Amino acid sequence: MNRRHDIALTPEECREMLASSHTIILSSIDGRGYPHSVPMWYAVRNDRFLMTTYAKSQKALNLQRNPRCCLLVETGTEYAELRGVLVRGHAELMTDVDAVLDALGVIRVKHGLGGNAPEVAEAMRAHAAKRTLITVVPEHVASWDHRKLAGAY
To answer: Among 78, 102, 103, 123, which residue's Cβ finds the most Cβ atoms within 10 Å?
Structure first.
Protein backbone atom coordinates (compact mmCIF):
# COMPACT_ATOMS: atom_id res chain seq x y z
CA MET A 1 0.00 0.00 0.00
CA ASN A 2 1.39 3.42 -0.99
CA ARG A 3 0.97 5.85 1.91
CA ARG A 4 2.67 8.87 0.32
CA HIS A 5 -0.67 10.57 -0.25
CA ASP A 6 -1.72 9.93 3.36
CA ILE A 7 1.35 11.60 4.85
CA ALA A 8 1.70 14.49 2.39
CA LEU A 9 1.39 17.97 3.82
CA THR A 10 -1.56 20.02 2.62
CA PRO A 11 -0.67 23.16 0.64
CA GLU A 12 -1.42 25.25 3.76
CA GLU A 13 0.80 23.02 5.91
CA CYS A 14 3.60 23.40 3.33
CA ARG A 15 3.24 27.19 3.38
CA GLU A 16 3.30 27.22 7.20
CA MET A 17 6.38 25.00 7.36
CA LEU A 18 8.24 27.09 4.79
CA ALA A 19 7.25 30.33 6.54
CA SER A 20 8.42 29.12 9.95
CA SER A 21 11.70 27.51 8.88
CA HIS A 22 14.81 29.66 9.07
CA THR A 23 17.09 27.57 6.89
CA ILE A 24 16.66 25.61 3.69
CA ILE A 25 19.20 23.23 2.18
CA LEU A 26 20.08 24.16 -1.41
CA SER A 27 21.59 21.35 -3.47
CA SER A 28 23.26 22.06 -6.78
CA ILE A 29 25.52 19.91 -8.98
CA ASP A 30 29.24 20.66 -8.95
CA GLY A 31 31.58 20.52 -11.95
CA ARG A 32 32.36 16.84 -11.34
CA GLY A 33 28.70 15.83 -11.13
CA TYR A 34 28.44 15.54 -7.34
CA PRO A 35 25.71 17.12 -5.22
CA HIS A 36 26.77 20.28 -3.41
CA SER A 37 24.40 20.96 -0.48
CA VAL A 38 24.51 24.09 1.67
CA PRO A 39 22.23 25.75 4.23
CA MET A 40 20.69 29.05 3.12
CA TRP A 41 18.47 31.73 4.59
CA TYR A 42 15.54 32.24 2.26
CA ALA A 43 12.08 33.64 1.75
CA VAL A 44 9.20 32.62 -0.50
CA ARG A 45 7.48 35.22 -2.66
CA ASN A 46 4.96 34.45 -5.40
CA ASP A 47 5.70 30.71 -4.98
CA ARG A 48 9.38 31.30 -5.76
CA PHE A 49 12.26 30.84 -3.36
CA LEU A 50 14.61 33.80 -2.88
CA MET A 51 18.19 33.55 -1.59
CA THR A 52 21.33 35.57 -2.03
CA THR A 53 24.96 34.54 -2.12
CA TYR A 54 28.30 35.89 -3.16
CA ALA A 55 28.47 35.94 -6.95
CA LYS A 56 31.74 33.96 -6.90
CA SER A 57 30.50 31.28 -4.49
CA GLN A 58 30.61 27.63 -5.49
CA LYS A 59 26.82 27.35 -5.44
CA ALA A 60 26.46 30.33 -7.78
CA LEU A 61 29.04 28.86 -10.17
CA ASN A 62 27.26 25.48 -10.04
CA LEU A 63 23.87 27.04 -10.79
CA GLN A 64 25.28 29.10 -13.66
CA ARG A 65 26.57 25.91 -15.24
CA ASN A 66 23.47 23.82 -14.44
CA PRO A 67 20.36 25.58 -13.06
CA ARG A 68 18.70 22.35 -11.87
CA CYS A 69 18.58 22.26 -8.09
CA CYS A 70 16.79 20.88 -5.09
CA LEU A 71 15.63 22.52 -1.84
CA LEU A 72 14.90 20.76 1.44
CA VAL A 73 13.29 21.89 4.68
CA GLU A 74 12.94 19.23 7.36
CA THR A 75 12.27 18.85 11.04
CA GLY A 76 11.88 16.14 13.66
CA THR A 77 14.25 13.96 15.63
CA GLU A 78 12.27 10.73 15.97
CA TYR A 79 10.91 8.82 12.96
CA ALA A 80 7.33 9.45 14.07
CA GLU A 81 8.01 13.24 14.09
CA LEU A 82 9.71 13.62 10.70
CA ARG A 83 8.27 16.32 8.44
CA GLY A 84 9.69 17.85 5.31
CA VAL A 85 9.24 19.66 2.04
CA LEU A 86 11.40 18.77 -0.96
CA VAL A 87 11.36 21.08 -3.97
CA ARG A 88 12.90 20.30 -7.34
CA GLY A 89 13.28 23.23 -9.68
CA HIS A 90 15.61 25.46 -11.59
CA ALA A 91 17.48 28.52 -10.45
CA GLU A 92 17.58 31.92 -12.07
CA LEU A 93 20.53 34.13 -11.11
CA MET A 94 20.48 37.92 -11.19
CA THR A 95 23.19 40.38 -10.15
CA ASP A 96 21.06 43.53 -10.32
CA VAL A 97 21.87 45.38 -7.07
CA ASP A 98 18.30 46.61 -6.53
CA ALA A 99 16.91 43.08 -6.99
CA VAL A 100 19.49 41.71 -4.52
CA LEU A 101 18.65 44.49 -2.03
CA ASP A 102 14.94 43.76 -2.38
CA ALA A 103 15.49 40.04 -1.70
CA LEU A 104 17.76 40.81 1.25
CA GLY A 105 14.98 42.98 2.68
CA VAL A 106 12.37 40.22 2.30
CA ILE A 107 14.72 37.71 3.92
CA ARG A 108 15.56 40.14 6.74
CA VAL A 109 11.85 40.59 7.50
CA LYS A 110 11.33 36.82 7.58
CA HIS A 111 14.15 36.48 10.11
CA GLY A 112 12.90 39.30 12.32
CA LEU A 113 15.71 41.70 11.40
CA GLY A 114 13.46 44.42 9.97
CA GLY A 115 13.32 45.36 6.33
CA ASN A 116 15.53 47.61 4.27
CA ALA A 117 14.90 50.97 5.90
CA PRO A 118 16.70 53.72 3.94
CA GLU A 119 19.72 53.75 6.29
CA VAL A 120 19.96 49.93 6.19
CA ALA A 121 19.58 49.80 2.40
CA GLU A 122 22.42 52.27 1.90
CA ALA A 123 24.68 50.34 4.24
CA MET A 124 23.85 47.11 2.43
CA ARG A 125 24.25 48.47 -1.11
CA ALA A 126 28.02 47.80 -1.26
CA HIS A 127 27.42 44.36 0.22
CA ALA A 128 24.68 43.66 -2.36
CA ALA A 129 26.98 44.64 -5.24
CA LYS A 130 29.08 41.53 -4.51
CA ARG A 131 26.08 39.21 -4.35
CA THR A 132 23.69 37.50 -6.72
CA LEU A 133 20.01 36.78 -6.28
CA ILE A 134 19.07 33.12 -6.60
CA THR A 135 15.42 32.61 -7.46
CA VAL A 136 14.33 28.98 -7.50
CA VAL A 137 11.27 28.25 -9.61
CA PRO A 138 9.63 25.02 -8.36
CA GLU A 139 8.85 22.28 -10.85
CA HIS A 140 7.90 19.51 -8.39
CA VAL A 141 7.11 19.56 -4.67
CA ALA A 142 7.01 16.51 -2.40
CA SER A 143 6.20 16.58 1.31
CA TRP A 144 5.75 14.26 4.26
CA ASP A 145 4.52 14.33 7.82
CA HIS A 146 5.12 11.10 9.70
CA ARG A 147 2.94 12.36 12.53
CA LYS A 148 0.00 11.51 10.24
CA LEU A 149 0.96 7.83 10.49
CA ALA A 150 -0.24 7.87 14.11
CA GLY A 151 2.35 5.26 15.07
CA ALA A 152 1.30 2.77 12.35
CA TYR A 153 4.33 2.18 10.15
So the answer is: 103
As a whole number, mean pLDDT of residues 61-74 equals 98
User: Which of these CATH numbers, 3.90.76.10, 3.40.1700.10, 3.40.50.1980, 2.30.110.10, describes 4-149?
Assistant: 2.30.110.10
Pairing of strands 23-29, 48-54: unpaired
Q: How far apart are CA 73 and CA 48, in angstroms?
A: 15
Q: Which residues of 117-134 are buried (b: 16+ CB within 10 A; e: fewer)?
A: eeebbeebeeebeebbbb
* Single-letter amino acid code for the residue at 11: P
Spell out the residues 6+ positions from residue 147 whose beta carbon is closer than 8 angstroms to its own. Answer: 80, 81, 83
**The length of the chain, given as a count of residues:** 153
End-to-end CA distance of the chain: 11
* Average of per-residue pLDDT values in the chain: 92
Predicted model pTM:
0.91
Distance from C-alpha of 153 to C-alpha of 142, rounded to nearest angstrom: 19
* Cα-to-chain-centroid distance, residue 2: 28
